[in-house]
Write a structure and sequence with these properties.
Largest interface: A-B, 95 and 78 residues
Structural class of chain B: alpha/beta
Distance between the termini of chain B: 58 Å
Radius of gyration of chain B: 21 Å
Shape of chain A: elongated
Radius of gyration of chain A: 22 Å
Structural class of chain A: alpha/beta
Largest sheet of chain B: 9 strands, mixed
Strand order of the largest sheet of chain A: 5-9-4-1-2-3-10
Largest sheet of chain A: 7 strands, parallel
Distance between the termini of chain A: 69 Å
Helix content of chain B: 25-40%
Strand order of the largest sheet of chain B: 11-10-9-12-8-1-6-7-13
Strand content of chain A: 25-35%
Oligomer: heterodimer
Strand content of chain B: 25-35%
Helix content of chain A: 25-40%
Chain lengths: ~325, ~260
Amino acid sequence: MGPEVLVIGEHNGGEIEPITLDLVSWGCQLAAENKWQLGIVLLGLGAQQCSSKLTNSGADVIFVSDGPEGQQYSTAIYRDTIASIVKEKQPRLVLFGHSYFGIEIAGSIAVILQSSLLSNCLSIHTSDNGFAVVRPIFGGGLLMRAHLQSHGPVMVSMQRGASASRIFLTKLADVVPIDVDTTIPSPKLKLVHETLPSLGSEITNAKVLVAVGRGIGQESKLSIFRELAEQLEGSIAASRPVVDLGWLPSDRQVGLSGQTVKPNVYLAFGISGAAQHIAGMREAALIIAVNKDPDAPIFGIAHYGVISDLFDVATALLKITKAQK
Amino acid sequence: VNIIVCVKAVPSRPKNPVIMNEGQCIRVESPQWLFNESDEYALEQALLLKKSLRASVTVITAGPVHVQDILYASIARGADSAVRIDVDEFDPNLLAHILFLAIKKQTYDLVLTGVESSDGMSSQVGISLATKLGVPYAYAITKVEAILEQKSLRIERELGGGRHQTLEIELPALLAIQSGITRLSYTPAAKLFQARRTGIPCLKPEALGLSNEELKMHRNIKIIEVFQRTTANKVQLLTGNSAEVAKVIFDQIKGAL
């Protein structure tokens, strides 16, 4: 019998991804409350090195598969390996990150194991022989609480930053190597090449970011925000829709699919605050949001909020900024 | 080449959510039901492939009759046919199964979905559907090019943090299309008017062979409660005229630098 909770870890070849630490903290809490065991799965090149960073994390066991062949791991190999581990260990719960990696495998593993997945969750607790989770719906302004129960293991994926209160467990995890069959007879999905993001782009270095969203309405309205960014000696950034519309280039995009930024000041104009955007800017030291919609999720993370016309506020702010020079 | 596009209509301004059918779905009121954003891009991509490959495009949705407008809009834009499966479900595990039952009976080379629906926000249906169909899949696709002679596609996908991969995927396959993959085309009102006269076939779950036992087996999720998100951190709302608000913002910025 394996651990009751199994966390599917993510790493970038040497560093543990932050979302995995969130999952481990949820796993620790569930394990401590229910006297369960916690396991972590780490696969791919660099997994062994990463496992040593998690031996003190509160987990009981870490299943690791490293090796040079890990470099060619495809989604299908990860998926099939994790599915077979889950089949063998029969945990009550498998925790994935709601990341690109987690999204690509969790919904598939749930089908392979004839289980159900609840994705994009903010919290998880045990309830009535199953689990109760809270997750966003309808753009994130509303939340739903749902109960999940199945005969076998159930799957839950958690949003980045959704972290349990840390329970510190003093134990040392066993590191258990596992065999992975990395041969796929005829791969139907082949990697041609990978492009890395340009490092040290302007928006990741800026101390002040003036970020604009769909709420600005039209491209011609960008100029006032550009000027404001310039006056504040910062840069202009954008949420996904603005880049999709072609109003700003993709290196200006903040969020899960764009850049993660950590400026001193993040001014959000007309950005509703979809989870995918917030994931890229939540760690800004000061977040000020201006939006017409009082229900915009951005107000859930902003330090200061203004429910008002964007242009009135931007114009007034520009005027003060210029006057102070 | 046959392309199937899975689309969903989502409420423009959801109000008064009510949990229905013992926790199986959430009913909301909304002034309009619009194309889910990434699904609209998936349709647009399918229509581009239709032109270059002379493909036929079938649009499919699973939902009650008030979601039908997006099917007329799809036909007006150039889709060859549209089908609605008459169910009202919120669980993406079950929706993937229902779509699977409908699609497995068809001939297809490519299935397209969006990356996420704005109502369910699960990003799951496409991935689960592909696994049920037993076809290769990829998520968050930002570019699609046909490689005709090899019966495969060259695709580009996002990996997050500005990383991208170029891949080749063998057909039949499923791609979850990211918003912004192409420019959306304009739908002339006359075409929409004409499309509204098209009959849209409606499939009942029984016709797909979905038995009550099977439904029961898939029901592992029960919605207990729907509530407003309360802001965990207390956002301080600034009130007053623009000049007063701007002054506070300016002072805060100065303090943070």
